[in-house]
């Protein structure tokens, strides 16, 4: 109590915080475990295929982890400012603190850290989250924050995102987060289909799905930028300073990953046209073609085989058994060399 010189009346102390978002920690743990598992079995792969296989696994896991992580991240629009501001209601005391604002696809995260942390006989270190995704009642969470008596800077920023605020930030960021998250989930499904197709003899379609993965990520970024740019200009004044926001790390890493997926998808499609043998070798698939089966890239590649009739290949007609067996033996003794140099 304040009478004992400890804290202001009716205010709960700051709750302990985990040094990292638990959802992101779970996602990173899952993908790192998968990576370690693949690295453990890496010595069982021989030759150059070991390097190719490791490169494919690391790239694929990186893309999948990024798509999932940014979907749950609160680093899409961020801002931080150092200021002198009032601390709590019914008090004339001011504090020196760092105030941070992080807007994600599912809500808002507000931090308040004193400089120094110990001021007014209290530990000033707050990390509060207000959500609006999947039925989250933002107004109710804000009302609970008022009842708990959170510091003024936290309540001030949280109030700007309430549905009744004239800034209209709740509707703009809520719509942006909803549709951006939906597009990222579609990108994640495309990533899963990419892995399935690249493990089968339909590599060109795996490249197309990888291209679609990147396009959906870029489309999500475009929608987020357009939706948030339409928000009203609402200055966030905290004491003697003004808080400004900008795109965060989640936005830029999604942009990088989307461009990477587009480039890799185009590379697979071009390699399928120009160097199909090298493409098969990179994905550890057999580069030998059937002697009776001719592949037609124009008609669908690996999914549309075109068979040659006996009349179209006169060399195979009227071959004596002795000559055929001798030619087969010669072919077995001197196999064709693989003409793809790495």
Q: Helices and strands: which structural class? A: alpha+beta
- Determine the fraction of residues in helical runs and give it as a percent range: 40-55%
Low-pLDDT parts are 1-14, 287-312, 321-326, 328-338
Which term fits the overall shape? elongated
What's the number of extended β-strand segments? 9
Adjacency order of strands in the biggest sheet: 4-3-2-1-7
Encode the helix/strand succession as letters: HHEEEEHHHHEEEHHEEH
Distance between the termini: 74 Å
Largest β sheet strand count, sense and barrel closure:
5 strands, antiparallel
Report the mean per-residue pLDDT as an integer: 78
Helical segment count? 9
- What is the strand content? 15-25%
Question: Nearest-angstrom radius of gyration?
Answer: 30 Å
Secondary-structure topology with pairs:
Blueprint: H1 22-40, H2 49-71, E1 77-86, E2 94-103, E3 107-119, E4 122-131, H3 138-148, H4 152-160, H5 169-198, H6 203-229, E5 236-238, E6 241-243, E7 246-247, H7 249-274, H8 276-282, E8 293-296, E9 301-307, H9 321-333
Antiparallel strand pairs: 1-2, 1-7, 2-3, 3-4, 5-6, 8-9
Question: What report would you give on this structure?
Answer:
The strands form 3 sheets. A 5-stranded antiparallel β-sheet has the order 4-3-2-1-7. A two-stranded antiparallel sheet has the order 5-6. Strands 8-9 form a two-stranded antiparallel sheet. With 342 residues, the chain is α+β, with helices and mostly antiparallel strands. Helix content is 48%, strand content 18%. The protein is elongated and about 75 Å long. The N and C termini lie far apart (74 Å). The protein has helices at 22-40, 49-71, 138-148, 152-160, 169-198, 203-229, 249-274, 276-282, 321-333, and strands spanning 77-86, 94-103, 107-119, 122-131, 236-238, 241-243, 246-247, 293-296, 301-307.
